[in-house]
Amino acid sequence: MRVYRAGQAALLICPAATLALECRELLSMNPYTPLQGQYLAFIYYYTKINRRPPAEVDLQRYFNVTPPTVHQMIVALERKGLIRRQPGQARSIQVLLPPDQLPPLT
After folding, report:
1. Distance (Å, rounded) from C-alpha 80 to C-alpha 78?
2. Of the four listed, 3, 34, 43, 52, which is most buried by Cβ atoms within 10 Å?
3. Nearest to 33, CA basis, from 51, 10, 56
4. pLDDT confidence of residue 2
5. Who's near 106: CB < 8 A, 6+ residues apart?
6. Domains of the chain, residue spans
7. Is the predicted pLDDT of residue 82 greater than 80, yes or no?
8. Rounded distance between C-alpha atoms, residue 60 and residue 34, angstroms
9. CATH architecture, domain defined by 34-101
10. Which are the contacts of 91, defined by CB distance < 8 A and separation ≥ 6?
11. pLDDT band at residue 41 using 50, 70 and 90 as cut-offs
């Protein structure tokens, strides 16, 4: 296993055949990227302040990105099991991590 560092981010290179135990441990310590963490923190704090989850347009405005970018991030977070949504229901994003595992919102 090799870890290459670039600033605060680290690129984890694991053997192609299998994920070594230490690779799995590193991945489980930080299950999201720094940008994904910012999205999770925004969703958590927005929900806490406004008593309802944000719409995708709220995420667009805060992060100054396009609608497809926000949607791709939401789908990626859901695929990783970090959030949950109700199909066909607006403003249904729910963060599944405890607040102490979220980064500070910058």
Report:
1. 5
2. 43
3. 10
4. 52
5. 38
6. 1-30, 34-101
7. yes
8. 17
9. Orthogonal Bundle (1.10)
10. 52, 53, 54, 55
11. very high
